[in-house]
User: Fold this.
Amino acid sequence: MDPWLYGQVKTELLVQINGVSSREHTGSQVILLAATNLPWEFDEAMRRRLTKRVYIPFPETKARREIFELNLGQIDLDLDVDLDDLVQETEGYSGDDITNVCVTAKRMPVERVYTPELLLKMRREMEVGEKFRELETQRLVVTKADFAEALDNVSKSVGHDQLRRFKEWETEFGSK
Assistant:
């Protein structure tokens, strides 16, 4: 972003925050909630206006399991898939990282079943008006191997150095 434009946007945001908390709005029930992945980028003026600062760490074991369950919903999982193993393997992953693992794993059986050759065959049959029935018996099942490949392809989005930086920022600027 253009530094001048950034300065203008930031100034306007600070003015609006001041306006909400002015005497004119005394008694109003307004809560400003902000989130960032880079809290150290906030300047002092912004930190002063955001009086409560809370660091939310990555999901713990129970939360990671719930994220997997939410993302997998009604998906058919092979008997070899163990959610407890996946939960352990994703320690240090963000909720979004876990969602990406699930999306990647769910896509793999689709790619196995719907090969380019099969899609071409379906297209040809539909063009001549035939009903395509070959897939009616095929189930899309996500396997342990799908998750292993997904975990190989989706890495943690935040490294140890950045986690350390979050904790340092929390120690210096976080609310007690």
Observations:
- The longest strand covers residues 76-77.
- DSSP finds eight helices and two strands in the chain.
- The chain has a mean pLDDT of 87.
- The beta strands are 76-77, 141-142.
